[in-house]
Amino acid sequence: MSIEFSNVYYVYSPKSPFEYEALKDINISLEQGKFIALVGRTGSGKSTLIQMINALLTPSKGEVKVDSFINSPDKKRRSKNISELRKKVGLVFQFPEYQLFEETVEKDVAFGPKNFGSKNEEALKIAHEALKKVGLDESFYARSPFELSGGEKRKVAIAGILALSPEVLIVDEPTAGLDPKAAEETMALFESIHQEGVSIILVTHDMNLVAEFADEAVVMENGKIVKHCKPEELFGDDLSAYSLENPHIFQFALDLQRKGLQIDPKNLKNVKDMASAIKRAKHV
Ligand SMILES: Nc1ncnc2c1ncn2[C@@H]1O[C@H](COP(=O)(O)OP(=O)(O)OP(=O)(O)O)[C@@H](O)[C@H]1O
Ligand SMILES: [Mg+2]
């Protein structure tokens, strides 16, 4: 699904003492099938922006088009079939406990498919498959989602979205607070979903993930988009201006280069790439 923002503004609590303009003149076009990283300092507007894509928020001005679906403040222009959009564009919140509500894990994950017409048994089958994908086994099926750890809750929330087979998967800081193994498994899951043709929009502060997984990076600052480019075009800039750091791999390669190793710090995605680059490199 193509996603297009045209002159989008968003104001929280308009005409109140708490009025706050969180998005300012956003214009961006995102193609289907890409792995996009959305980065930027705390409060820059990332979570606000992604909620426009599946119409959880409506722009105060401007409009967002997702294929033929229109999210606009103009009621006449705005598309009516919101639930169809939400099936295609799955969003996993920054705080997943907000999206869990059933008594048991399997009911929670089966809710979406049931809501879209699957019979109970079929919905449970889909739920079990989705839970397997996120690494939660049968022992979790009958547990209450509210009694799980933060990382487990997030897995249930992701399974609930996957159960709807979305075309776009938006995940808001999905690895924050996970142990390294769980974080790695979560990213591997997104990578495999991406390879099936699903667009991924990953909100993160972790530039290592941006280097390793993203096709494109979008940088937000103070409610605006300040960059939209390939990840490697970002690295080396003074990222601290956006409260971001270069990926460790990039920084390490840069140090090696300064010490005389012929190595290109760009286009290194992970430790494996780094090892091969060092093996190939010549001293100068
Ligand atoms: N419900 C709200 N009411 C008023 N202002 C809000 C509300 N939610 C967010 N804001 C403000 O809008 C701005 C953008 O918030 P947003 O949550 O989109 O930032 P973010 O980039 O996701 O930040 P983080 O990296 O901390 O998650 C912030 O300054 C925030 O204080
Ligand atoms: Mg956020």
Overview of this protein structure:
- The chain is of the alpha/beta class and 284 residues long.
- Helix content is 36%, strand content 22%.
- The protein has helices at 46-53, 82-88, 105-115, 120-133, 150-162, 180-195, 207-213, 231-234, 248-258, 271-280, and strands spanning 3-12, 20-30, 35-40, 61-66, 69-71, 89-92, 168-172, 199-203, 216-221, 224-229.
- A 6-stranded mixed β-sheet has the order 6-7-8-3-9-10, sandwiched between helices. It has a 4-stranded antiparallel β-sheet with strand order 2-1-4-5, with helices on one face.
- A hairpin with a 2-residue loop joins strand 4 and strand 5.
- Helix 3 (105-115) packs across helix 4, helix 3 runs parallel beside helix 5 (150-162) and helix 4 crosses helix 5.
- The mean pLDDT is 94.
- The structure holds adenosine-5'-triphosphate (ATP) and magnesium ion.
- The site of adenosine-5'-triphosphate has 14 residues, from strand 2 and helix 1.
